[in-house]
Amino acid sequence: MQKLHPLLPAATACSSCNLRENCLPAGITVGEMAQLEDLASMKRTFRRGDYLYRSGSPLKSLYAIRTGFFKTQVLHENGLEQVTGFQMAGEIIGMDAISTDAHTCNAVALEDSEVCELPFGRLEELGRELPSLQRHLHKIMSREIVRDHGIMLLLGSMRAEERLAAFLLNLSQRFAARGYSPSAFHLRMTRQEIGNYLGMKLETVSRTLSQFQEAGLINVRNKAVEILDAKNLRAFFGYSAAAL
Amino acid sequence: MQKLHPLLPAATACSSCNLRENCLPAGITVGEMAQLEDLASMKRTFRRGDYLYRSGSPLKSLYAIRTGFFKTQVLHENGLEQVTGFQMAGEIIGMDAISTDAHTCNAVALEDSEVCELPFGRLEELGRELPSLQRHLHKIMSREIVRDHGIMLLLGSMRAEERLAAFLLNLSQRFAARGYSPSAFHLRMTRQEIGNYLGMKLETVSRTLSQFQEAGLINVRNKAVEILDAKNLRAFFGYSAAAL
DNA sequence: GATAGCGCTTGATATAGGTCAAACTTTACC
DNA sequence: GGTAAAGTTTGACCTATATCAAGCGCTATC
User: Fold this and answer.
1) Which nucleotide across the nucleic acid strands is nearest to B159, CA versus C1'?
2) Contact in structure between A237 and A158 (CB atoms under 8 Å)
3) Quick check: B142 contacting A, CB < 8 Å?
4) Does the structure show a pLDDT above 90 at A168?
5) Distance from B56 to chain A by nearest Cα, in Å?
6) pTM of the complete model
7) Which residues touch strand D (CB under 7 A)?
8) pLDDT tens, residue by residue, B47-97
9) What average pLDDT score do residues A31-39 get?
10) What are phi and psi of A72, to 5 degrees?
11) Four-CA torsion B73, B77, B78, B82, nearest 10 degrees
12) Helices B202-214, B160-177: inter-axial angle, 10-degree rounding
């Protein structure tokens, strides 16, 4: 059942949001900020498990994640599914819908979350007035393309342990970029979801995490992860791959 | 060695190009076409094996493929590489570079090819004046994101034979969209390149093609492919996946 | 604060696809 | 147009990861 998502007044404006350097406003001048704030004034909250959008729903807005964690997943008619990403604060999602004016994946909150809604028509309009915003939107879309290519490399060419090492290091780096500890964090997703994202089964995720722990690279206890030896974790997947 | 790529005068304008419905001009009105033609007037030709751009080279333009075939590939520092796509006439490439103002993959001609160069700065400028062009550019970028998600599904969740069936059907459909036979075409890429794209080894590609042939689904002789039974080829990968 | 259900771990076994190898075919180049 | 190199096929064997199974431990809810 879809719950109601109350529309909140703008609790926090872009200019005073501590994500502004990671989010849509990056590169926007102070003078232009007011227009962007007007655009992004609509906030929505989601409980864990809620859908931000579903495959097939019409394109209305892009969404900037203010707090929380989402996953996106594509579903194939034959029942296959693939997690295409885990998104955190400051990241923009929904761009999949521009192509056909309808979303092509689901976005599900992995924890209680808040997003800023960016009506796409108005975003394009504003882009025509503000070249720096236009360019930044293009950069965000391009960044998604580049990220996707990285995942293809991971799925197509890496072994399970390399994929998981890359995944942990990527999370670490993204937490760090938001001012959180790069070495200790909580996974918001299940082993199943990690495995689906990385193209492996949940048992393999579990085994490989245990293996990393035995090797002294990490500590895992359920969702709590501590990276003990980022250097060797990186080397782990760098060197073994180089040996191919 | 990078060869010289002679700059040709505009041999064919967008308005008289038979790819206009598949390419950047899709959705552009007749009145707007002249400006687009001016933008896209620079053509470049490439011999097989030539690089259109390389990872690290600065963003200058996007490129519309007029004739020929390209592959794009990402290279990882540790030596891994991944083919991220095979691009044909009417498709736009180079969007990976917008994110960081530098290309993140190589684009290599798989046969003698011709591209229309679209200087990106001018493209953005023109996008600010022509909302339909702006929207179309966004659609093209979004389409790439959606395609990438499909490849993730393929790499992360399908078996080798399903991936290859999906690949053949995708090529078939793209040839059909350009007025070529959907049932008989030439592969422009090697088994190695197909395998790299699909996350499998060249031997597996070869074996699986032979297997499809034995099953009466296709005819293969080197690069010449004939699809004999598209329905069952589709069913092949649909049903077996559904049985999971 | 008890309990049901979901998530996680670990073991045993199976298998898809990888690896290595050899022979054959096509293509490119001198 | 002959020859070397690159691409392809097929076979035999191997291994990374999947599958199946059992038991444990959170954590969420009443």
Assistant:
1) C16
2) yes
3) yes
4) yes
5) 13
6) 0.92
7) A 159-161, 199-201, 203-204, 222-223; B 187, 190-192, 202-203, 205-207, 209-210, 220, 222-223, 244
8) 999 999 999 999 999 999 999 999 999 999 888 999 999 999 999 999 999
9) 88
10) -115, 145
11) -10
12) 80
Q: Are A79 and A20 in contact (CB under 8 A)?
A: no
**What is the C-alpha separation between B83 and A156, in angstroms, rounded?**
9
Tell me if residue B218 falls in helix, strand or coil.
Answer: strand
* Separation CA B31–CA B24 (nearest Å): 15
Reading the block at residue A105, the tokens are 């994946």
Burial A46-80 (b: 16+ CB within 10 A, else e): beeebbbbebeeebbbbbbbbebbbbbbbbbebeb
On whether any CB of chain A is under 8 Å from the CB of B128, the answer is yes
- Under the banding of pLDDT at 50, 70 and 90, the label for residue B20 is confident
Whether chain A has a CB inside 8 Å of the CB on B150: the answer is yes
Q: How far apart are CA B85 and CA B153, in angstroms?
A: 15
- Residue holding tokens 């999949």? A96
SS3 B165: helix
Pick the more confident residue, B230 or B78: B230
C-alpha distance from residue A127 to each of A30, A34, A88 (Å):
16, 14, 24
Q: Which nucleotide is nearest to B222 (CA to C1')?
A: D8
Residue pLDDT, tens place only, A84-122? 999 999 999 999 999 999 999 999 999 999 999 999 999
Give the pLDDT score at B244.
29
Residues B179 and A19: their CA atoms lie apart, in Å, by 48
Judged on CB neighbours under 10 Å (0-12, 13-18, 19+), A134 is buried
